[in-house]
Specification:
By secondary structure, the chain is of the alpha/beta class. It is built from 16 helices and 19 strands. α1 (about 10-25) runs parallel beside α8 (about 215-225) and α1 (about 10-25) runs parallel beside α15 (about 440-460). Bound molecules: flavin-adenine dinucleotide (FAD).
Length: about 475
């Protein structure tokens, strides 16, 4: 009998799961997506002829499976781009990755000497680390790695701005995932020629998708539909329960998912569900769970993102892909010029700057009016010399909740409390950035989706085995 598999969410993870299941065969696959388009966070929005990703999405992977898969999926849409980036520090622009001569010239001998002395001190800190003294927080990890001066100058203000939290309240796991050797602090080390061992630098060349990252989701969606899979857009899952049916000897009872479509509701039956929606949302949809489990779901917090897109009446604002702002002002953490990723993203004589701001959805920053926030960003970035105020002819603001899982101290305990509860639903697995609370990239999302599909194809009750093997996803690293 063909098994009915329902996938919640049509981001990269959900689409990759559907694609892999249809490749393996034997399943009837339906994807339900709350938004009107596929792609999730990896979508491209087009307004007034200007296309922009929800924050720039470049492709880079160290995973062999993905290195083979992406060229197959994207064909001649896969572009190779040579990276150009700058960082704005103490009111000056520096090339990123940093160059020793430029750092000395721009920041001055006094500042550089203080950074260098602190980094030499930090090497003693690292030696202690090797003796078994593990850093508890992100602040400890970064201070031990780069010393107090670089920490205070670059890392602390940037972390406060990006994570909207004190670095001492964040887990050292962020340092591991974001690969500190690639970070701004390490870049200082390399620029100052500290240490004999050469560390790998940031990614200097990367892949991009002609037409914007959203094309990846569209291509996956086309493959899914052409093999008979269904994708229901504007369809939000709101509840999930076991059907009132006798389990067969080898199958658990089917699941029922309540889906809101506009003002109407429908109930979809499934033999197995793969969820890629945020873990707290999934928790709220499920019956059962004691106080301890409910509070664990609630403690898993996510950051939202606000994107201010400034449209300029110019061919280009500069040569750069990413511009980094570790200090405040400006309010933006990062900005990118999409036309430098792919010239087709804006028409001739027009370009755009997509500026990123992270926020918690319960703080005043998130409540700020779109017009007010765009005006502030425009003013602050003009002051950095990126453009003249008269260059900007229009602007728009995009917002997304559930952008980044926040690794606060102790988040692992919350996850450890929710997995045993979720494994009591034998034919439900959760996966992906949102579903496993895993701060990751597109290559990881592809792998997480495909692994979930393989687990589901191999068993009618995959949950127990799935939750016992999640460690394989905790080794993912983001290469900046
Ligand atoms: C600003 C930013 C920049 C990034 N840059 C890069 C980059 O340069 N390179 C890179 O590789 N990665 C990058 N990433 C990471 C990348 O976007 C993610 O790893 C990937 O898109 C995660 O895919 P996902 O499917 O797991 O999650 P999502 O994309 O979040 O997909 C989840 C889907 O579930 C849907 N959903 C939620 N609730 C429901 C519900 N109740 N019912 C139905 N559907 C629901 C959502 O609408 C969404 O479509 C970036 C992320 C951000 C935020």
């Amino acid at each position: 009998m063909t098994r009915r598999v329902l996938i919640l969410g049509a981001g990269v993870t959900g689409l990759a799961a559907a694609d892999r299941l249809l490749e393996l065969g034997g399943c009837d696959v339906t994807v339900v997506e709350a938004e009107p388009t596929v792609g999730g966070l990896a979508a491209t929005v087009v307004r007034d002829g200007i296309a922009t990703d929800l924050g720039p999405h470049r492709l880079h992977s160290e995973i062999a499976e993905v290195q083979t898969l992406l060229p197959q999926l994207l064909g001649d849409r896969l572009l190779r781009v040579r990276r150009s980036s700058r960082i704005y520090l103490d009111g000056k622009w520096l090339t990123y990755p940093l160059r020793a001569g430029e750092v000395l010239r721009v920041l001055g001998v006094g500042t550089v000497a203080r950074l260098a002395a602190a980094m030499v001190g930090a090497k003693a800190g690292r030696a202690l680390g090797k003796m078994g003294v593990q850093p508890a927080s992100f602040a400890d990890a970064m201070r031990a790695a780069f010393g107090g001066a670089a920490y205070r100058k670059v890392i602390e203000p940037y972390a406060r701005k990006v994570w909207r939290a004190e670095p001492a309240s964040l887990s050292a796991e962020i340092a591991r995932v974001r690969l500190p050797d690639q970070s701004l602090g390490a870049a200082f080390g390399r620029a100052l020629r500290l240490g004999r061992r050469r560390t790998a630098g940031p990614v200097r060349e990367f892949g991009y998708v002609r037409g914007g990252i959203g094309q990846l989701g569209e291509i996956l969606a086309d493959r899914i539909r052409s093999r008979g899979g269904k994708i229901l857009l504007n369809s939000r899952a709101t509840a999930l329960r076991a059907a009132n049916a006798q389990p067969a000897a080898t199958h658990p009872p089917p699941l029922q998912v309540v889906v809101q479509q506009g003002t109407g509701q429908t109930v979809l039956d499934a033999d197995t569900v793969i969820s890629t929606i945020p873990l707290p949302q999934l928790g709220a949809m499920l019956p059962g769970g004691d106080e301890h489990v409910r509070s664990a779901f609630a403690k898993l917090e996510y950051l939202s993102i606000i994107l201010v897109v400034l449209v300029a009446a110019k061919e280009r604002l500069g040569p750069d892909h990413w511009l980094y702002f570790p200090q405040t002002p400006p309010l933006a953490t990062r900005a990118c010029e999409p036309k430098n990723f792919d010239a087709s993203l804006a028409p001739a004589g027009r370009t755009a700057l997509c500026c990123e701001i992270t926020a918690r959805c319960d703080e005043p920053l998130w409540a700020m009016d779109d017009g007010q926030i765009a005006a502030q960003i425009e003013r602050e970035l003009a002051a950095t010399g990126l453009f003249e105020p008269r260059d900007i002819v229009s602007r728009f603001v995009l917002r997304r909740n559930w952008a980044y899982p926040i690794y606060t101290l102790g988040y692992e305990k919350s996850l450890a409390a929710v997995w045993p509860f979720l494994s009591t639903f034998p034919n439900l697995v959760t996966t992906g950035r949102q579903g496993l609370f895993n701060h990751n990239n597109i290559d990881h999302a592809l792998v997480m989706g495909r692994c979930a599909a393989e687990a589901v194809a191999a068993s009618t009750a995959p949950a127990r085995q799935w939750y016992a093997s999640l460690d394989r996803f905790s080794t993912f690293r983001i290469w900046d």
